[in-house]
Specification:
The chain is an alpha+beta fold. It has two domains: 10-73, Arc Repressor Mutant, subunit A (Orthogonal Bundle); 78-235, Chorismate lyase-like (Chorismate lyase). Helix content is 26%, strand content 34%. The longest helix has 14 residues, at 10-23. The protein is elongated, with a radius of gyration of 23 Å. The protein starts with 9 loop residues before the first helix and ends in a 6-residue tail after the last strand. Bound molecules: 2-amino-2-deoxy-6-O-phosphono-alpha-D-glucopyranose. 2-amino-2-deoxy-6-O-phosphono-alpha-D-glucopyranose binds next to α4, β6, α6, β8 and β9. 2-amino-2-deoxy-6-O-phosphono-alpha-D-glucopyranose (GLP) binds next to α4, β6, α6, β8 and β9. InterPro entries: Bact_HTH_transcr_reg, Chorismate_lyase_/UTRA_dom_sf, Tscrpt_reg_HTH_GntR, UTRA, WH-like_DNA-bd_sf, WH_DNA-bd_sf. This is Phosphonate metabolism transcriptional regulator PhnF. Residues 8-76 form the HTH gntR-type domain. It comes from Metabacillus litoralis.
């Protein structure tokens, strides 16, 4: 596995080898890694080289160290491409995970001034306020609050929201979702996140806010989601022009 004649640095070869054992699930999240001494003996390489490989894998999130206990395999994060206006259901299915929803709140009420302006609504218009816990393989991933105009999406029910909202909008209502503006920022968990996402106080979440528009430019939704930062990372491919 480690080829001393290869032009590839030894630490890099070990790093790739450990990565493969994690990706092939030979080593599972929570498993401990053999000690530096054991690794250096079994691969016949220096402890410095082993340390370099482990440090790189810690920095990349594959491993984590616990003082006095050793080095362990981290929970792997879901990687989400930021390009493309996809739904949660599509994102999970693309990863062969089973999407799930827990509807926490469903309400129809007259929008307040700020939401009315952002959704371009008239005086008396009603909005849905929806709060859903989004799950992947039954594990809580994100807590999502959405505001949508009732006039655009008539007949929305709690039952429909157990499944994909975008599927309902596109396949049942035949509306064309066009584009969105999305921001991603770090935020501290609030009490609701702690309760539903099963995370501890003081831990950061990824706060994602999306404003989505139909193809004809009509505002469709305002969404605020807290994603578990220990489970999720965002990826973007960038090109130098
Ligand atoms: C993502 C987006 C939301 C969108 C939702 C629809 O979570 N951040 O803005 O409302 O997907 O998901 P689904 O169609 O799975 O209900």
């Amino acid at each position: 596995m480690i080829d001393k004649n290869s032009p590839l640095p030894l630490y890099y070869q070990l790093e790739e080898h450990i990565k493969q054992t994690i990706e092939s699930e030979e080593l599972m999240p929570g498993d401990s890694l053999p000690s530096e001494r054991e690794l250096s003996e079994s691969y016949q390489i220096s402890r410095m080289t082993v340390r370099q490989a482990i440090t790189n894998l810690v920095n990349k999130g594959y491993l984590f160290r616990e003082k006095g206990k050793g080095t362990f395999v981290s929970n792997q994060k879901f990687e989400q491409n930021l390009q493309g206006l996809t739904s949660f259901t599509e994102d999970m299915k693309a990863r062969k995970l089973v999407p799930g929803n827990k509807l926490l709140h469903f309400e129809i009420f007259p929008a307040d001034q700020d939401i009315k302006e952002r959704l371009d609504l008239g005086e008396e218009e009603l909005i849905y306020k929806i709060k859903r816990l989004r799950l992947a393989n039954e594990e809580p991933i994100a807590l999502e609050t959405s505001y949508l105009p009732v006039k655009l999406i008539p007949g929305l029910t709690p039952e429909i929201l157990e499944e994909s909202l975008y599927t309902y909008i596109e396949d049942e209502l035949h509306l064309n979702i066009g584009h969105a503006t999305q921001t991603v920022e770090a935020a501290l968990v609030n009490d609701e996140d702690i309760k539903h996402l099963k995370i501890k106080k003081g831990v950061p979440v990824l706060l994602i806010q999306r404003e989505t528009f139909l193809e004809n430019g009509t505002p469709l939704e305002l969404v605020r989601s807290s994603y578990r930062a220990d489970k999720y990372k965002f990826k973007i491919d960038i090109e130098r022009k």
